[in-house]
Amino acid sequence: MDMDRLQTIEERAARTANGFKDLEAAAQEVLDSEELACSKELALALLESDAHQARCVATFIIGGLAAADARARDALD
Known about the structure:
This protein is mainly α and 77 residues long.
């Protein structure tokens, strides 16, 4: 996993004070630019973040993956 990418997403997410549009956009960018396995790995790492906004990004990523990989939903349990 690209640790720089993880840190960049966490920092971007933490700057979002209100609303979900930028968080959703960040998640979509991951889904559009990464393979499924990489996106899932990144989402699972973001779920461990101290920033609740980063965890929101992870949830959006996992939601996007759920259509292609039913096991991705299990990460939300």
